[in-house]
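hiii, so i know i said id send this last week but things got crazy w the move. better late than never?? heres the sequnce for the chain we talked about at the cafe, plus the structure i predicted for it. fair warning i was half asleep when i ran it
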Amino acid sequence: MHHTIFDTPVVNTLLRVVSRATLRLTGWTIEGSLPAHAAKSVLIAAPHTSNWDLPYTLMLAFSLRLRVYWMGKQSLFRAPFGGVMRWLGGIPVNREQSSNLVASSAQAMRAAKGPMQLVVPPDGFYFIAQEAGVPIVLAFVDYGRKVGGLGPVFEPTGDLERDMADIKAFYAPIKGKNAYQFET
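okay and structure toks below
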C-alpha cells in the first residue's frame, strides 16, 4: 500500500492532538479502541450519508491511533486534490467499471506489513474481510449523539444472512448526518 499521513510520525502526532481537541470542542466523544487481534481489519464506514463523514472519520482515526486506508469514488482523486486524498489514505474506486475490487483489496490486506485498517462502505466490507481472513470492526459516526468510534469486532461466520442481521442490529440506533438505511 502507498505511504500515507498515518505513516508520518510528526504530522500524525500533531493531527492526533488537533483532532482530539476539535472533536472535544465541538461536543463529540470517542468510544472504543482497536484490539490487538484486529490490527489488520476491515472497518465498516456506516452510516455513510454525508461528505462530512470523511473529516470526522479521519479525526477519529487519528484520535484512536489507527492506520487507515479508505475507499472513495474516483472523482475525489482528480487534480488538484488527488495526491492529497491518497496521502490521507484514499484509494480511488471506479464505481462504474466492473473490477475485482474484493480480490485486490483482500490481497492488499494480506500483503500489508504491519497494522492496516481498510475503511469500506457498506456494500463491500463483508466479502473483503472474508477473503482476506480478517475481522470486521463496526466503526461508526453517530451524529445524533455526537459520538464516533469503534464498536465490537465481528468475525464473519460465512452465514451472510445471519451475520448481516447482527450487523444491522448494531447500526439500527446510529444516526447519520442525513437519513439512511443500512443496505447490503
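btw The longest helix spans residues 9-25. thought thatd interest u
miss u guys!!
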